[in-house]
Design brief:
This protein is mainly beta. The chain contains 1 helix and 7 strands.
């Protein structure tokens, strides 16, 4: 099954994608429950996406690059909610499922992409493909064929 992401419905489609990853069945019309802070950094040869994900397990993360769009999904558990006799007195930290995506306007070499996850920080590096438009490429002229 394929889920196609469109810019105007990206948040809804990302949530549907999270549901599909978790259950194997497309569903969901709810918004993502948690929104992690994310930075996008452009270097000379790559795009880096850095997300703060404290409390998120490595096994809950999924990173997919499709049709020029990077999609990061996962789940952050709220440990206090696991106790039936507990109640929040103050709740400032977010938790729940999340889906985040961005469409990149430049050509990416997805085969060389890599991700690192350490101390609650996810860093995705997407190497750029060198633009070839506007570069002068010399085309050799074949030698003249002599008539027989």
């Amino acid at each position: 099954m394929h889920i196609f992401l469109q810019r105007r419905d990206l948040e809804r489609d990302l949530h549907r994608y999270v549901e599909w990853l978790d259950t194997g069945e497309p569903a969901g019309h709810e918004a993502a429950e948690y929104r992690p802070p994310v930075d996008i950094i452009e270097t000379g040869d790559a795009i880096e996406i850095v997300a703060d994900l404290p409390g998120v397990s490595r096994t809950s993360l999924r990173i997919i690059f499709t049709s020029g769009t990077v999609v990061i999904t996962g789940h952050k558990r709220a440990h206090a909610c696991e106790h039936r006799d507990a109640a929040f007195l103050l709740a400032e930290r977010g938790f729940g499922r999340f889906a985040w995506g961005v469409r990149l306007a430049m050509a990416i070499d997805a085969g060389r992409a890599r991700a690192e996850f350490e101390a609650g920080e996810l860093r995705v590096t997407l190497p750029r493909i060198e633009e070839r438009r506007g570069h002068e490429i010399r085309i050799a002229i074949e030698p003249e064929v002599q008539a027989r």
